Amino acid sequence: MFIMDTWQYWIHCSMRSHMLHPPTCSAASHLQFVIGMFIMDTWQYWIHRSMHTSRFLYKHCHSTHHQLWNPYAFGALYNHPLEALLLDTLGASVAMFSLNMTCQLAVAFFCLSTAKTVLDHCSYRFPLNPLHDLFPNSAAYHDVHHDFHGLKANYSQPFFVMWDVIMGTYLDPSALQLSPAEAAATAAAAPAAALTQGGSSNSSSSSSSAKGGVEARTITGVAQAQAEQLEANLSHQKQPSTVRSRARRPAA
Hints:
By secondary structure, the protein is mostly helical. It has one domain (about 30-180, about 220-250). It is built from nine helices and no strands. The chain has helices at about 1-20, 25-55, 55-60, 80-100, 105-120, 140-145, 160-165, 180-200, 205-235. The longest helix has about 30 residues, at about 205-235. The radius of gyration is 23 Å and the shape is globular.
């Protein structure tokens, strides 16, 4: 109750001050907005990273969000209430109050940061994701963090990646993902490979047994990958700050 009363008091005072002194759109407002983005990134990087390095915080708080094996837009804010307060609400609020943003500027800042968080979890590129190529921190970048190879990397969100670069936790998305051209080439080659494999088998029984073996190996591989990620989620063993991808880079 005390926290809620304190929060509402300062919000009310801020709104009253801005109503008495109507804001104007100026270069100072734009500068405030940009600085606020860096402040929010700094806040979220260190809170987010601490939720991975602290076994207690991860187990009881951040692991809720990492139940998403494949990120999607509606899962962007699927997290523990404490994480929602520390990361999302306080991240933007610290920037707003430290820069004394106007109501209009604060609303725009909160809206953009929320939209950016949702789009970074949608797993789509431009044009379905209109902000994907405007910021270095994107859906492709954050997908790495939800992959078991990058669980200890790419903590930065939602705008820039400078803290990952500075602290040695940056992992290039191209190490784990195919470009659109490579994905199209892979999809085009799949039917031909399937026909070649099918033509090489003369016996239906041997073909079905081979198919069963492939399916069994596929299921085993998926289960092993999920087990590795689950183990990484729960064990939280200490690792060096520099993260190296175990995935093969696509051929040039």
